[in-house]
Amino acid sequence: MGESSQEQDARLVRETLAGDELAYKKLMEKYVRIAGSIAYSVVSDFHIAADVVQEAFSKVYGHLSQLDNPATFKAYLANAIRSSALDWVRKKTSLRRGAPMHFSDLAGDTQEFQDEGELQNTPLASIQSSENYGELLELINSLPQHYREVFILKHIENISYNDMAKILGVSLNTVEARLFRARRMLRERLGLQEQ
Question: Is 184 helix (H, G, I), strand (E, B) or coil?
Fold first, then answer.
């Protein structure tokens, strides 16, 4: 049986600390999409999120020796990404730069979302086969940050409730309540009835 994701992370962290730069590149490739979603959920701008991710990956690399348990790399990285994104928000007065982002630009191939069963009862499912992804992203962006974060982490990155609680530094109940409220707000804004 192969190694688990956490075991793989621990091995790659140890290899990175031993001087293998390719090992860190593998970690970056493994988590770049999740990192981008976390950053985007905070800053609401694709290009800024990319900058935040690049900066955070560099910071994590420089502080990797401080990671007590290499198997927790994913949570460590997620916290660093979120912290960097929040730092950016605090430093800037405006989150907008350039043209508005469209969901299709962020999502790439939309087929990946059609395979996720949990999306069936969400606002995303109601329009996923339509051409309204730009409209949906604008609605997601209009959510207050803490609702936007949980929605993106759950319904775009399919992060578990427990992992979201760790990433966001809140209780499991808080994650569930925020996600419930985010879904309700999106349904209301889409003019959908509660199911």
Answer: helix
- Rounded Cα–Cα distance for residues 122 and 118 (Å): 8
Tens place of pLDDT for every residue, the chain, 195 residues?
688 888 999 999 999 999 998 999 999 999 998 888 888 888 888 888 889 999 999 999 999 999 889 988 988 898 888 888 877 876 764 333 444 433 333 333 333 333 333 334 443 444 444 455 566 667 777 888 888 888 887 877 777 888 888 878 889 999 999 989 988 888 887 776 554
Determine the length of the chain: 195
User: Any idea which architecture 5-91 has in CATH?
Assistant: Orthogonal Bundle (1.10)
Q: Delimit the domains of the chain by residue range.
A: 5-91, 103-190
